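Two proteins, back to back. First:
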Amino acid sequence: MNEEYINRLIELYFDGSTTLEQEDELRRILADARPPYSPQIESAMAVMGYTAVMQARPAVSRTSVLRRSRMAMMAASVSIMLAVGLCWMLVSGRYNPDNSCVAYVGGEKVVSAEEVMMIMDSQLNSISLAHDNFESELIEQHQAISEIFNQL
């Protein structure tokens, strides 16, 4: 191709006057061009390359940007509300890590950690004893039924 024809196509491209066929031809010519490049060819390569890259990139819609910013604002609001609530609990004395072990026994509130642990230990021992008794009764009943069936 002669350089005058290429420069004419570039000029038409920058004026926005090329047809689709001329634009495709110019892309092919620039893709096959070998250095040294004229300043006009370098400019056309840069602009057409940028245009091709931007067309290939997925577009970010305005609604998705707004949706993300709304989500960020909601997350920030929730964080602020949690921080304010925690501060209020600490200042008002509603949260005291020393009194965090609480049990209600017979309708009475028990806050002593040692007493709560003793009550839990006693209850677990009662459950274990009931399990052992149930297991031995179950074995006795099974043996009695087996004896009845063995006699038949």
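And the second protein:
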Amino acid sequence: MTLRFDVVSLERDGADTRLALRIANLSDEFEYRPGADLSAGAISDFTLSGVSLIDLTTDLRHLVLTDTAGGCVCSDVGSTTVPAGSAVDVRASYPSPAADEVDIQLGELGIVPAIAVSDR
């Protein structure tokens, strides 16, 4: 299966930075379920908790923000499917990095290198 991950936007708004990501399934016959691939930890929570920002200046990893109940401030992708030839948009919020450029770690799938952080 061939997938493409496009950064739609990465915007800093004070202490928070918001990532909008498009997941495209370039396959012509299989659907893709991103839940487990993009979750953190041994037990998948089926969110984007495994997607992190890596500050290129400090080498610090910024994890997805959590709400007061400990839930990910991000898209719940547990029931999300990306049909063949289609794409879906997902979102996550992070503490703002100091750098104006970050790598985006996509769980176990790899890294999107050197993405500019724009100010809102």
